[in-house]
UniProtKB/TrEMBL annotation:
Residue ranges annotated for the Bifunctional transglycosylase second domain, each copy included: 74-155
Catalytic activity: [GlcNAc-(1->4)-Mur2Ac(oyl-L-Ala-gamma-D-Glu-L-Lys-D-Ala-D-Ala)](n)-di-trans,octa-cis-undecaprenyl diphosphate + beta-D-GlcNAc-(1->4)-Mur2Ac(oyl-L-Ala-gamma-D-Glu-L-Lys-D-Ala-D-Ala)-di-trans,octa-cis-undecaprenyl diphosphate = [GlcNAc-(1->4)-Mur2Ac(oyl-L-Ala-gamma-D-Glu-L-Lys-D-Ala-D-Ala)](n+1)-di-trans,octa-cis-undecaprenyl diphosphate + di-trans,octa-cis-undecaprenyl diphosphate + H(+); Preferential cleavage: (Ac)2-L-Lys-D-Ala-|-D-Ala. Also transpeptidation of peptidyl-alanyl moieties that are N-acyl substituents of D-alanine
Family note: In the N-terminal section; belongs to the glycosyltransferase 51 family.
Name recorded for this polypeptide: Penicillin-binding protein 1B
Organism this protein belongs to: Amnimonas aquatica
GO cellular component, one term: peptidoglycan-based cell wall
Catalytic residues (positions): 193 (proton donor), 471 (acyl-ester intermediate)
């Protein structure tokens, strides 16, 4: 064999050996790479699995605290008028249906109301849905009967949800269980969005292929092949990014979700998670909240076309928004109805009848918004002392407040209509603002709070605006005098010119509003007409320290200098301060003003009850006598115009307030147990030209006209008696004597002297002449 051939043969085995080793290395590297990919892929899948399980098995949502108004209590004998119940049912979106066959419906038949309540879980008791029969006797519930035994004669309607305290991402939802879904909801959802939901494993290969072909032709991700499970994954875990990586994650997480959890659990979560709209910066999530937002009804009460509308919006809540795009929404709803028909879930007549109905959405959203932001602002402030902000926005707490929706709506209407009328009268009123507060006189529960007109900006004048109160302080002077036992309402008081000289020698000469002096008048007349000169003279007589002590007793805080100008209201107070002042002054009992009754956790357990301590701070006799004097303000004084619109049988007690240069217009007063304070003015403190009687009083009167509260006189304490007193001298008289006036007098304030007529020794006409001559000398 030639040497060259042997050399080639020697080289070939070596080359083959190198190639074989290279192949082996390549195979090993490939296996290693595959192992790395498998391990990394497995680790990545395990990472995704951890994400899926952690959120799905943990706290799935940050549930905002939901804030409720007070529930309307229905009980035989309560003073609740049929009009009040009708208004409440309208607020709760009850529907008039013959026979009231289902929850959320009612029917009036003359003075009888058939009402099918929805029920509600309170902390102390669950009110069951029930059919009620109420028979009204005038302005009272005369009789109440129920299909539920053992009601004890009283039923609470569900409270109106007035807002929420939202988490930082501004999501809101009302959680529901799958069994609470109305008929056809799940059927419509599956027929329209995912017909193979109960058979696929979380992804649809057919849908993915279709989406791939569409996206490939478009050159970008424009369509997904999403099942309901994938949609849930996208909403629950991922962002709206359109990329291949996100779609892969979505598919893997959908498979994992289906691996770990039952179909019904996934579907229930979807029903609570899907986005169905936007209200301001709050997203509307889940069908439970959407039912309230669009229809003002619980999800369980929705009809077939209403369900179809919500299901249709799943594809694009903004694009199919029924309020902004009603034509699109109607077309989409009808498509859902047709899908139900094609799937054999409804008949052709049912489909056709449903297609003919209007969308029926509310013009004003009933959820995902704060209906009364001024009141809710106070609720938040009162909760800050007891709860962390995160707990309020994520733990699903229920805040039961004292707000009366009828009173709040009436306050808004009264203020808006009066200010709109006043703003037309001149440039000084074009920036006029106002506040209305209403509370229960007995327990201090706030019924309404309005901190200004227009959109709430965060500046709550009812709490933050400190203004001079003017004549609103005068009743404290008269209370000081009456409680001393030295005065009655018929005690004579000089309303002539008065001068007060300060320690520095400066002379102060206050004048009456009408720039006139009125001579000697009874205390009752001086207060009723808000005479400044008489009030200053009386205040200086009883002493400024005594008046300040009375104000402290009434709850007025802050620095009160013993300056004579204090007697005419040279003191800054907020409207809330004034409401508390008059709550004490008109009842004699200090009941701290409360906006919250109870806080309940997500399981229905009561966490905290807000029961303010009530304290008797004024002698009941003095409070009753003062109340009478404030009634005279309304009968014959600066508040008398209220009776032009209100029944004479109503017992009204209140006081007007006007500050220097007509900058502030005030009125504070009560009709029975309903106390309200009104302030009108400008934020820049410029004059408005309005007195208390021409500005604030008309708002207060309009509020009472709208509410028509039961307004009876307060109960008279045993230590008070109605005595006949002489109008000129204040001495004891009787009903046969000329000039005799019957007024309430406390035992300690009963005069010791009698008129000659009352003593029985002088005829009435002679006694009258003698008293007239004596009064003539007094005035000189």
């Amino acid at each position: 064999m030639p040497a060259i051939v042997r050399a080639r043969e020697a080289v070939v085995p070596k080359a083959d050996s190198v190639m074989q080793r290279a192949r082996t290395v390549l195979v090993l590297l490939s296996m290693l790479a595959a192992l790395i990919v498998v391990v990394a892929g497995g680790a990545y899948v395990m990472h995704l699995d951890g994400i899926v399980r952690e959120k799905f098995e943990g706290k799935r949502w940050a549930i905002p605290a939901r804030v409720y108004a007070r529930p309307l209590v229905l009980q035989a004998g309560l003073p609740v008028a049929p009009t009040a119940v009708r208004e409440e049912l309208a607020l709760l979106n009850y529907r008039p249906v013959a026979g009231a066959p289902t929850p959320g419906t009612y029917e009036f038949q003359g003075n009888t109301l058939y009402l099918h309540s929805r029920g509600f879980a309170f902390s102390d008791k669950r009110e069951q849905p029930q059919l009620l029969r109420l028979r009204f006797s005038g302005e009272r519930i005369g009789e109440l009967a129920s299909t539920q035994p053992g009601q004890g004669g009283a039923v609470r309607l569900e409270p109106l949800a007035i807002g929420g305290i939202y988490p930082s991402h501004n999501e809101d939802r009302i959680l529901i269980q799958l069994k609470e879904a109305p008929p056809h909801l799940v059927e419509a959802l599956l027929a329209t969005e995912d017909q193979r939901f109960y058979s696929h494993v979380g992804i649809s290969l057919r849908g993915i292929l279709r989406a791939f072909l569409v996206n490939a032709s478009a050159g970008s991700v424009v369509q997904g092949g999403s099942t309901l499970t994938q949609q849930l994954v996208k909403n629950f875990y991922l962002t709206d990014e359109r990329s291949l990586r996100r779609k892969v994650n979505e598919a893997l997480m959908a498979l994992l979700l289906e691996w770990h959890y039952e179909k019904d659990e996934i579907l229930e979560t979807y029903l609570n998670e899907v986005n169905l709209g936007q209200q301001g910066n709050h997203s509307v999530n889940g069908f439970g909240l959407a039912a309230q937002y669009y229809f003002g009804q619980p999800l369980s009460e929705l009809s077939l076309p209403q369900v179809a509308l919500l299901v249709g919006m799943v594809k694009g809540p903004s694009y199919y928004n029924p309020r902004r795009q009603p034509a699109r929404a109607l077309e989409r709803r009808n498509l859902v109805l047709d899908n139900l028909y094609r799937e054999g879930r409804i008949s052709r007549p049912e489909r056709d009848a449903a297609m003919q109905l209007p969308l029926g959405v509310l013009e004003r959203p009933m959820a995902a918004t704060n209906l009364y932001p001024d009141f809710l602002d106070l609720v938040r402030r009162q909760l800050r002392d007891s709860y962390q902000a995160e707990d309020l926005s994520s733990q699903g707490l229920k805040i039961f407040t004292t707000l009366d929706p009828r009173a709040q709506n009436a306050a808004e209407a009264a203020l808006d209509s009066t200010i709109a009328r006043l703003r037309k009268q001149g440039r000084s009123l074009d920036k006029l603002e106002g506040v209305v507060l209403a509370a229960d006189l007995r327990n201090g529960e706030l019924r309404a709070l309005l901190g200004g007109t227009g959109t709430f900006t965060g500046y709550n004048r009812s709490i933050d605006a400190s203004r001079q109160v003017g004549s609103l302080l005068k009743p404290a002077i008269y209370l000081t005098a009456l409680s001393s036992g030295q005065y009655t309402w018929m005690s004579p008081l000089d309303d002539g010119p008065v001068e007060v000289v300060s320690d520095a020698g400066k002379v102060w000469q206050p004048q009456n509003y009408d720039q006139q002096s009125h001579g000697v008048v009874p205390l009752r007349t001086a207060l009723a007409n808000s005479y400044n000169q008489a009030a200053v003279r009386l205040g200086m007589t009883v002493g400024l320290p005594a008046v300040i002590n009375t104000l402290r007793q009434l709850g007025v805080e802050g620095d009160m200098k013993p300056y004579p100008s204090l007697l005419l209201g040279a003191l800054n107070q907020t409207p809330m301060d004034v409401l508390q002042l008059y709550q004490v002054m008109l009842s004699g009992v200090r009941a701290p003003l409360q906006s919250i009754r109870e806080v309940v956790d997500a399981k229905g357990n009561a966490l905290q009850r807000f029961d303010g301590e009530r304290r008797q701070v004024i002698d009941p006799a003095d409070a009753y006598v003062l109340h009478y004097g404030l009634q005279q303000v309304m009968r014959q004084g600066t508040g008398a115009s209220a009776y032009q619109r209100l029944p004479a049988a109503m017992v009204l007690a209140g006081k007007t307030g006007t500050t220097n240069d007509l900058r502030d217009s005030w009125f504070a007063g009560a009709a029975g147990d309903l106390l309200a304070v009104v302030w009108l003015g400008r934020d820049d403190n410029k004059p408005t030209g309005l007195s208390g009687g021409s500005g604030a009083l008309p708002v207060w009167t309009d509020l009472m006209v709208r509410l028509q509260p039961a307004a009876a006189a307060p109960a008279m304490p045993p230590s008070v008696a109605w005595e006949w007193l002489d109008a000129d001298t204040g001495r004891l008289s009787n009903e046969t004597c000329s000039g005799g006036v019957q007024v309430p007098v406390s035992a300690k304030g009963r005069p010791q002297e009698m008129t000659a007529c009352a003593a029985g020794g002088v005829p009435a006409f002679i006694d009258s002449v003698v008293d007239g001559v004596m009064n003539l000398f007094r005035r000189q």
